[in-house]
Amino acid sequence: MAEQQKNQSQNNQPQNEQDLGQLLKIRREKLAALQEAGKDPFQITKYDVTAHSRDIKDNYEQMEGSTVSVAGRIMQKRVMGKASFCNIQDLKGNIQSYVARDSVGEEVYADFKKYDVGDIVGITGQVFKTKTGEISIHATDIVLLSKSLQILPEKYHGLTNTDIRYRQRYTDLIMNEEVKETFVKRSKIITAIRRYLDEQGFMEVETPMLVSNAGGAAARPFETHFNALDEDVKLRISLELYLKRLIVGGLERVYEIGRVFRNEGLDTRHNPEFTLMELYQAYTDYNGMMDLTENMFRHVAQEVCGTTVVPYGEEMIDLGKPFERLTMIDAVKKYTGIDFDQVPDTAAAKKLADEKEVHYEDRHTKGDILNLFFEEFVEEHLVQPTFVMDHPVEISPLTKRKPDKPDYVERFELFITGREMCNAYSELNDPIDQRERFKAQEAALAAGDEEANTTDEDFMNALEIGMPPTGGIGYGIDRLVMLLTNSPAIRDVLLFPTMKSLDK
Known about the structure:
The protein is α+β, with helices and mostly antiparallel strands and 504 residues long. It has 17 helices and 20 strands.
């Protein structure tokens, strides 16, 4: 069949726009002829599928000789007089069918010969092996379920233009099997996360996407207008503040998996809308969150990939061994030799930044500059799983301070392949301290920081009612999928990534 596929003429591609126009015209003429003959495929409302391609191939010994009904898209077709071959693709793969005039009847066979690559068909027949050993279906009936009026990309060169792939994901899924596998795996990853958390006693909840105050992260929100209330609202940038309200209400373990929206640029790691999972657990701290994170990443990798050692680019990422744990100060010291514990104040930190050519803004303090040093000199080295702990208070407005070191907070970020994978805190539950942090954020906003938070009075009211000691964490689902599918860019794991309009 492979040689037949290579030689079959029905998969030839148009050489120019004139050729394409003629081929599209022919397809519409074929549809019109079918409709005139009372065989309109778009009038068919259902087809009873009894098996998928992979099921047949995996269970051939049990299914040999049995009658099956499969449905899918014609990907190759070779007509040879009284008998023909076609290959159809369904959810789980593809399978060959042998279509003979004597088996399906003259009328059905005559119709089949006019079908095009890209058409969707249903085939009923017996499972068998060809002389070359290929598992196939000997068709006894074939019906056209949908007529394709467009031309698929040429099979042997595939669809490689990334812009077209992202804009026309439906074509990408048809032409590139590995793309389909990525998104099947994405679904399994999210299912594995849910199952793990459910078994740990967490409850899945849903919180608002349209909010009056977009808080919980350092990000610029999208804004819109709610006509019915004549109010400006924002799309959420985080799940945090509403989930904490639920902790206040006594729901001790909650999580949400949902879209958040950040008005920022596009690159290999960022898309303005992305999937975030946040969870909050009462009566634990960031150490408990580190243990949960390590165990969950290990569990999900084993469940979905069958191993805890996964390839990413040229690296093998080991999620099976204990994750390294470093404070941010120790991480900067390890890779630069500079000990920020010995830097007395903001002026000294800025002097160091000048010497190392690290760009900062006038409003930045010592804690901000420590974080800039970390981003500049450390992140790229954190290839294997590493928890970076104890961030400066200036960049952590919702996090509990370290009792023995109040300029720093009980926070960690997990880094793998040089990328932040998650962010977690011992959550700040002191309403007096929280209000002061919000004031500092508002001062930063007034000084030009468009990503700073503003005071959320209803959230403050919830804290004043009382929130127990709580650990919380946010996971970027898309980056985890990138890791476990060995995908270099976030657009490769988003079915419909944000793209600039073609008419702009």
